[in-house]
Amino acid sequence: MMADGGRDYRITSHALSEIRRRGIDESIVEQVLAQPEQEIPIRPGRVVRQSRITMGETERRYLVRVIVDLDRDVPEVVTVYRTSKVDKYWRTVT
Questions:
Q1: What are 66's strand-pairing partners?
Q2: Domain segments of the chain: what residues?
Q3: Which residue among 8, 12, 30, 77 has the highest number of C-beta atoms inside a 10 angstrom radius?
């Protein structure tokens, strides 16, 4: 997968399985990878890229979180999920 200005990403089989199971369109994952609203370090070599996305039949707003291991030759998407608990995970700049 290409994202982030042409940067390659590999989606692990686990992440792909979770994307499908959770009904998240791969184009949304690409969008979050390419232009995340926020990037939050979790530990050295791993980040969460996240964006607020309106999706679904009800046009509900979700936070889509893409967990990426950057310390690989080709960065790997570890898992992807969406949550309606935007305030829990959103980081405000103070």
A1: 49, 80
A2: 2-89
A3: 77
